[in-house]
What does this fold into?
Amino acid sequence: MKKLIISLVLASLSIDSFAFEIFALGTSNTNCKGAGQAYTIKLNELLAQEKINATVINAGVDGDRPAFMMTRLEQGLKANPNIKIVIFEPGPNERNKSFNLGPSAQILSFLQKINMPTIYVSHVLLQSNEEAQEFATKYGAYYYGHWVKDVPTNATNRQYDQPGAAGHMTVVGCQLWANNMFPFIKEVIKARNIQ
It folds into this structure.
């Protein structure tokens, strides 16, 4: 009987260990390809430092395209009913604008319909800042900016793993992105009174 009570207490603690989750849906940028998920790991460290009772779920998949993200989003929401914020980074893997922005619009529309606070992260290859801001606003999302906003293009912050481009971020770059994103997440938490 004593073991059963201890097990039930431990189970309830693990269920309630975080008040809410943040679902980071995206590509290898969100996953920090080659940099050990440093972006979402750093966000979790910052949440813990600020004593915000939340955790970030890394739902970034290398090489993914927006057309395939809705299923992962729906599965993530079903498996994690305490998701209160989605960070959506559709990435540049699909360079055809209509095939990228069309499914991205469907995802943003779905999130708007379920009243899920969403932070939209754009890519310069697909939208200007102005276009991305308008796109996010249309679907009630908060616009962060391009994923590389305020991250220097140098060997400290970028891997130079793409032909003719700076490519993915290094651990340092991913951590800087998380540091840059964190105040924005806190603003959304405050604006939407998320607990």
Observations:
- Residues 85 and 117 are 5 Å apart (CA to CA).
